Amino acid sequence: MALIDIGGDAIGRPVAAGALFTDLIMDNAADGDGTIDAIEVWAATNLTGFKVGTFFLISGTTYECRDLESIGNVTSGSKQTITPLTMDVTTNDLLAAYWATGTVERTQSGFAGLRWPGGQGDFITAALQSNFSSILSGDIMSVYGTGTTAGGWAGEYCGVAVAEFDGVTPAEIDGV
Known about the structure:
The chain is an all-beta fold.
């Protein structure tokens, strides 16, 4: 196994993204095939109805939801980590989030942008295709996922990263 990450770092940011929109984070596409088992989020104000999904490109600005996790309420003021999750992800998938009330930390420049389907609504439904035609160019928000690829070893032992053990690298070990 190798580690996978997706989305925007869950950090404090200068502004906030509002509720009732499905925002697709255009930065940091998934770097492997496997499972997202943790979501980190930094809410500026308490969230209700929070959910996340992995999306893949169909054509143009149309994306399809591969998998999702309904999380519910998230406390504001610091990074919150939600585990355990089992959300499928494939290389180059993007992370999207929706919430009913509250705000999420957001930056307005220096990034690839946030896309949304042009109006309010929850578009995080498995196998649903949506046209994410609107964009906030340069924006990113603080929703981030981590997980592992299928099979093998993640290069960690008891939470400590291990690059090599007795001359063997994690990539050479399978099924541990």
